[in-house]
Write a structure and sequence with these properties.
The chain has about 750 residues and is of the alpha/beta class. A six-stranded mixed beta sheet has the order 1-2-3-4-6-9. A six-stranded mixed beta sheet has the order 10-18-17-16-11-15, sandwiched between helices. A four-stranded mixed beta sheet has the order 8-7-5-19, with no helix packed on it. The structure holds beta-D-glucopyranose (BGC).
């Protein structure tokens, strides 16, 4: 992990007193180009370069349009993507070519003819891997594809906590826990930036739902947000050092997230000493004053009511309403990130991409992210016994489902299927289609189980599906739930009557397996009637192959739920989705202090409600024994323990450590996780050194993290509800020294 030095930024925050030169450029310095000396640090290089810029050049860096035909034609130099900021050739400053991002390189509305990207599995699948290496490899793969297509900024790093299980964008994010989300988002960013492509983290902050996303006002206390959603961002930023932070659409405590002094100037830039720039989400800038409140760049400007950061900003600097030093700070932050990620030294080179190698990265993520939820009597893996197997529904003959919206990736070979979605939504028509990636579970399974007789039944009529199931030894129903940016699910029920389909098949065949391709948790009224359930999320470019390998046992499942699966909506902190049914752009408040920092499994622990499946849960084809927990306290916690594969097959395990009580008070919090691979009979020792912020609380009065002195009870085991071993340590307590925490997060 990187140390606190990364936060040592000379032109910190809103340093309005910073050196300011709005004068014409110095011709001598132009020739010398001192800022091109790579031995200088990015702060110094940015400072030197920014001094050479005219006010118009500075302003030019601070806003830009969408790079696709939408209301206006994109600039001719723009590659065609989400966004574009022109460069400054006179000073050798490259343009920012910005593309979406987290799940792969996108090509919105096919604006770049014939180009595609390798689709990673959804964020929840990556999170379910509980493996930072999987996130890093994905971020790096996408970064390289972006760089090879001419892009130098990726709008990735989705790090919103999934507070709302019905949320339309949960599939883009990494679940409900700050440590898991922060670590994996940070690793994905680190991977992308290793390819000299700047990555964002987004959407800062508390963008918990899509319904009324432009007008929802999230109300939450300082301590509650710092211990939950902001902690995820804080950890992601420390791990990944993203060049930019994208602020969110919604309001937080009565101020738009992109116009939010407390969030942007206060927490991000002052408290965390964040040295990069804040870019707006597309159409999220309410006005010019956002520049004073910490926003550095207006993106997708034609979606806002005006190009606030263009002429109006220039006029405000001219009149003195906005200090020119602020404009210098905004520009310097952008340049600093460009230097830090190597955009000057390593400009994108268009070139061929090894799509087979990239698909292998996506397949590994799927194989580690698929979660086995139920496996009664060891029905899985399928015995290679020449049986009759029928696959039912979910277009499993053609491919695997993906989620919709700005993150939609289409593979280079095109989709297997594009199924238009009826109705009107927040996003324009071309985005309203279910895209199935060309990775057919049917073909993959036939390839791996040639001795079996495998057929497909569309699943449109439960009676026909049941008839097919009756003829088979095993029936595998593929159930889908399409989720998209801009819309939430009204409830957690599988859509299109698929519960009836599953029930009918289960009644016809005792060996029924359900494979879920969903954007998040769903209810399972048929759970008691089926023998096995697999949560495959949206499994990406090689999802069919990954599923087939798991079904036949070539891979033992090792995914763990990154969010709780509730047993009913009534168990949620918000049983009714805030704002559901209200007209678009209605202004309402959502009270996030109901759950506060007790997001997801912490809420279930607080209320005592029994979920359908708990956070961290997932089955394996092997079995594991935990032993020899050693735990020490004092100034911090050190934990180590052994995990042994007691099963018959090689498998990965995701050991987890949870805080159960802090200074005598009950708490539930993930404080450590790992992913290890074990051969049968093999033992490995796992060690955790939990970040002190996970042991403490945010003390609003003292404006810092604090650990209460006393006894801390910690459990390790395979999920949040299975504490295999427990220990109690005594902590001295006191204020958390953040520099120390950041040097060893
Ligand atoms: C989304 C962002 C995305 C941007 C650019 C917005 O609608 O919220 O996540 O990066 O569009 O496509």
């Amino acid at each position: 992990m990187q140390g606190a030095r990364r936060f040592a930024f000379s032109g910190l925050g809103i340093a309005l007193a910073a050196t300011l030169l709005v004068s014409a450029p110095n011709a001598g310095a132009q020739a010398a180009k001192a800022w091109m000396d790579p031995k200088l640090d990015p702060d110094e290089r940015a400072r030197l370069l920014e001094q050479q810029m005219t006010l118009d050049e500075r302003i030019g860096l601070l806003h830009g349009p969408m790079a696709m035909p939408f209301r206006t034609a994109p600039p001719p130099e723009a590659l065609g993507s989400a966004g574009y900021i022109p460069g400054i050739p006179r000073l050798g400053i490259p343009a920012l070519q910005e593309s979406d991002a987290s799940l792969g390189l996108t090509n919105p509305m096919g604006v770049r003819k014939g180009e595609g990207g390798t689709p990673m599995p959804s964020g929840l699948a990556v999170a379910a891997s509980f493996n930072p290496e999987v996130a890093y490899a994905g971020g790096r793969m996408i970064g390289h594809e972006a760089w090879s297509a001419g892009f130098n900024v990726l709008l990735g790093g989705g790090a919103n906590l999934t507070r709302e299980p019905r949320g339309g964008r949960n599939f883009e994010y990494l679940g409900e826990d700050p440590l898991l989300t922060g670590t994996l988002a940070g690793e994905a960013v680190r991977g992308t930036q290793s390819e000299h492509v700047i990555s964002t983290v987004k959407h800062f902050a508390l963008n918990g739902q899509e319904t009324l996303r432009h007008t929802l006002d999230v109300r939450i206390s300082d301590a509650a947000m710092r211990e939950s959603d902001l902690l995820a961002f804080e950890l992601a930023i420390e791990t990944g050092r993203p060049g930019a932070v994208m602020c969110a659409y919604n309001l937080v405590n009565a101020a738009y997230a992109c116009d939010n002094d407390a969030l942007l100037n206060g927490m991000l830039k002052r408290d965390w000493a964040y040295p990069g720039w804040v870019m707006s989400d597309w159409g999220a800038v309410p006005g010019l004053q956002a520049a004073v409140h910490g926003l550095d760049q207006q993106s997708g400007e034609q979606l806002d009511s005006a190009v606030h950061f263009g002429e109006p900003l220039k006029a405000a600097v001219g009149s003195g309403a906005i200090p020119a030093a602020r404009v210098s700070d905004m520009s310097r932050r952008i340049l600093r990130s460009m230097f830090a990620a190597g955009l000057f030294e390593h400009p994108p080179q268009r070139g061929p991409v090894d799509y087979a190698a990239d698909a292998a990265v996506a397949q590994r993520a799927a194989e580690e992210g698929v979660v086995l939820l139920k496996n009664e009597g060891g029905l899985l893996p399928l015995a290679k016994a020449g049986r009759k197997i029928v696959l039912i529904g979910g277009h499993a003959d053609a491919g695997v489902l993906s989620g919709g919206g700005s993150s939609q990736v289409v593979a280079p070979e095109g989709p297997a299927l594009r199924v238009p979605v009826a109705g009107e939504g927040e996003l324009p028509g071309p985005f309203r289609a279910m895209v199935y990636h060309a990775s057919s579970p049917l073909t993959a399974l036939r390839g791996l189980a040639p001795q079996d007789e495998i057929s497909f039944q569309a699943g449109d009529y439960p009676s026909a599906a049941a008839a097919a199931a009756r003829q088979a030894d095993v029936a595998i129903v593929f159930a889908t739930q399409w989720m998209t940016e801009g819309e939430d699910a009204p409830d957690l029920t599988l859509p299109n009557g698929q519960d009836q389909l599953i029930a009918a098949v289960a009644a016809a065949n005792p060996n029924t397996i359900v494979v879920l391709e969903t954007g998040g948790p769903v209810l399972m009224p048929w759970l008691g009637q089926v023998r096995a359930v697999i949560e495959a999320w949206y499994p990406g470019a090689r999802g069919g192959e990954a599923l087939a390998r798991i079904l036949v046992g070539d891979v033992s499942p090792s995914g763990r739920l990154p969010m709780t699966f509730p047993a009913s909506e009534a168990q949620l902190p918000h049983p009714a989705l805030p704002g559901a049914g209200l007209p678009a752009r209605s202004h309402i408040e959502a009270d996030y202090d109901i759950e506060g920092s007790d997001v997801g499994y912490r809420w279930f622990a607080r209320t005592g409600a029994e979920p359908l499946f708990p956070f961290g849960y997932g089955l394996s084809y092997a079995s594991f024994a935990y032993a020899d927990l050693k735990a020490t306290g004092g100034d911090g916690v050190e934990l180590s323990f052994e995990v042994k594969n007691t099963g018959a097959v090689a498998a990965r395990e995701a050991p987890q450590a949870y805080l159960l009580s802090a200074a005598g008070k009950p708490v539930t919090r993930l404080v450590g996780f790992a992913k290890i691979e074990l051969q049968p009979g093999e033992t490995k020792r796992v060690a955790f050194h939990p970040d002190p912020r996970l042991l403490g609380r945010w003390d609003t009065a003292r404006h810092g993290w604090r650990i209460e002195p006393g006894d801390y009870r910690i459990a390790v085991g395979p999920s949040s509800k299975a504490p295999a071993l427990q220990a109690t340590v005594r902590l001295r307590g006191g204020p958390v020294r953040l520099a120390a925490a950041r040097s060893n997060p």
